[in-house]
Write a structure and sequence with these properties.
two-stranded antiparallel sheet, 15% strand, alpha+beta, 68 residues, rod-shaped, 4 strands, 2 helices, two-stranded antiparallel ribbon
Length: 68
């Protein structure tokens, strides 16, 4: 049994239905460790901390310049 629409919906009705489907802005939080802004639920790209724990060890730019 096929449930096809009996009549066509107008563009206005289509627009009303799609009005609630929209992009949301990405939410940013301030890192409690280095106060840099980053997206929620990801490791801080500046210091490598997530939820108070160091997850990624970041290399300092000054140490990289000295070794090169």
């Amino acid at each position: 049994m096929s449930h096809e629409p009996k009549k066509r919906h107008s563009r206005q009705r289509q627009g009303k239905r799609r009005a609630s489907i929209r992009l949301s802005l990405a939410k940013f939080v301030v890192c409690p460790n280095c106060q840099a802004k980053h997206a929620e639920h990801i490791v801080c790209p500046e210091c490598g901390y997530y939820k108070g724990n160091q997850v990624v060890v970041k290399k300092n730019k000054t140490s990289l310049a000295q070794t090169a």
